[in-house]
Amino acid sequence: MKIMHIIGGAEKGGSRTHLITLAKELLNRGIKVEIVCFIDDVVAAEARAHDISVKVFPMKNAYDLRVISKLSRYIHLSKPHLIHTHGVRANFIGRLANLGNDIPLLTTVHSSIRYDYGSAFKARSYHAIDRMTRGLTNQFIAVSDAIAAELIEDGIDAKKITRIYNSLALDFPLTNRAVSSIRQELGIDAAIPLLITVGRLESVKNHRMLLDIFELLKANNIDYHGLIAGDGSLRAELEQLAQEKGLNDRVTFLGFRKDVYQLLKASDIFLLTSTMEGFGITLLEAMAAQIPVIVTDVGGMPEVIRIAHNGYVVPADDTVQFVARVEEILASPELSERLVASGYKALQDNFTPEKFTDNTYRLYEKVLNERNKHKRNIRGGPFN
Predict the structure, then answer these.
(1) Among candidate residues 260, 187, 185, the one with its CA nearest the CA of residue 228
(2) What is the pTM of this model?
(3) Which helix (H) or strand (E) holds 33?
(4) What is the C-alpha separation between 185 and 182, in angstroms, rounded?
(5) Residues 326, 259, 222, CA angle at the centre, nearest 5°?
């Protein structure tokens, strides 16, 4: 079997982790895999680092549609058994490029377009663009039941949707390793609890709520230090807001970090205040680092917590309840240990790269079998 994955190329979040993990695990099983990108950026770099074949078709700008014919010719020459697209740009270009090739095509929906973009106009536009070509996808993969429900509400036949949960990245540690020297780096006393979040600094992650939580914890005289790992367009604005709230001595913006496991391992609670998460791979990373989590009741995150029992789900924007849950965990080491143990077991039972790849490969086989059956029925028709 030969699989061609198509993705924009600049993705720095869960979709990149999803794709690299899947591609590497498929390669380990002897399946041919190639990744096609339209920007030579982080996805291509990580693919090369993992010895995954990658082909880049550079686009001069977002409207450079000449790439469609180039990719169409490449698909014709490569002759993959399946095409698998990820993201609005890749979906649109990949589906149109496949028109003359008629190869079975799958699309993974990693997140909600409604929440992915800060601009409502941009969200509506991208949603309309994606809907234009959805009929060219044979099967959709939703990373959570919440995403699947949104697709059905948006008019996609439920029979064309398969829910497959994400997994922890192949190279993310699952054993105890030396923790980050973050306390020494920042001069934080060993007795002060560390509360951490990891993610891009964009509106969908709702760091404003997180800063409200930190402000209320300070008002309640709770000892803690907040760590915000990640970068994005809102960094300067959020740093200014933290200063206005008097949190300069309580919160550190770490920027982009590669030592995520070590940062999580050194922390006491993982917090995620997003307004939408298709799945939330960082929840799995927190399980691997063995710390409890508190998240907002959005997207696929409640599903993960219901399976793992490794923390709490609170209503979106309910700062008071969020703070109460933080205080509850900090006050009870026994509770924290129970949540950690449950999460670590759930990670190994439900969210491994092996299980994730098994589920995806079974869907590949199903789609190919249906295509072959369809071709046999055509050949065996009454006029043949």
Answers:
(1) 260
(2) 0.90
(3) strand 32-37
(4) 5
(5) 20
H or E, element range at 132? helix 120-132
Expressed as residue numbers, the domain containing 322 is 182-350
Q: Distance between CA atoms of 142 and 64, rounded to whole angstroms?
A: 28
- 219 and 361: one domain? no
Can you give the CATH number for the domain in which 78 is found? 3.40.50.2000
Give 29-47 pLDDT, tens digit per residue: 999 999 999 999 999 999 9
The letter for the amino acid at 225 is H
For residues 196 and 163, membership in a common domain is answered with no
Contact at 8 Å (CB) between 44 and 37? Answer: yes
CA distance 91 to 96: 8
Do 312 and 234 lie in one domain? The reply is yes
Which candidate, 179, 235, 183, 185, places its Cα nearest to that of 205? Answer: 235
* Residue 4: strand pairing partners: 34, 83
The CA distance from 42 to 359, in Å, is: 26
- φ and ψ at residue 194, rounded to 5 degrees: -105, 125
